[in-house]
């Protein structure tokens, strides 16, 4: 049985870390697309326009296959990587952390920066509510009225969520269901006469 769940955060959260006059404000956001990442980044850059750095990392997708780290002018590897490390340590995806830095006049050095970005990101995640979501797949099923009862029996399954329905020359229902249940339900639907599942 393959895993069909992933962890993300329920809502935006914040963490703050101070070191030698520098202030690091970490903002964590639930995101699902790169477009959402860009939106949140633009909002934060606008809100904290006077900050010296807006460093970030994100991981996207149930399989965590899209990710990015950005040091935004800090020495290479001192900001994006430690932020990214916190996402990995909590096994999160569909999550963006931006750490805004206000420079306090005293340089922290490489190890000081790594620790500051890591700690700020950690604070934001500790303030967040981590939730587990299922990986769902969406299907369209079309069928004749004569088999409506048989189709609806299957779609009453607790793992199925009906997203929409309509009627053209046939009934069409759009539904989503948990990935690990998809073979069982789709196979059963396909056994019903006149049913087409896409």
Question: What average pLDDT do the residues reach?
Answer: 94
From the helix content, strand content and strand pairing, which structural class follows?
alpha+beta
Distance between the termini: 23 Å
Major pleated sheet: 5 strands, antiparallel
- Roughly how much helix do the residues carry, as a percent range? 25-40%
**Approximate shape:** elongated
SSE string, helix = H, strand = E?
Answer: EEEHEEHEHEEHEEHE
Radius of gyration equals 23 Å
Oligomer: single chain
Low-confidence stretches: none
Would you kindly provide a written description of the structure presented here, covering whatever features stand out?
- The two termini are 23 Å apart.
- This protein is α+β, with helices and mostly antiparallel strands.
- It is built from five helices and eleven strands.
- The strands form three sheets. It has a five-stranded antiparallel sheet with strand order 2-3-6-4-5, with helices on both faces. A four-stranded antiparallel sheet has the order 9-10-8-11.
- It has helices spanning 34-47, 80-89, 109-127, 148-155, 179-190; strands at 5-9, 13-19, 22-30, 53-60, 66-70, 95-102, 130-134, 136-143, 160-167, 171-178, 196-197.
- It is elongated.
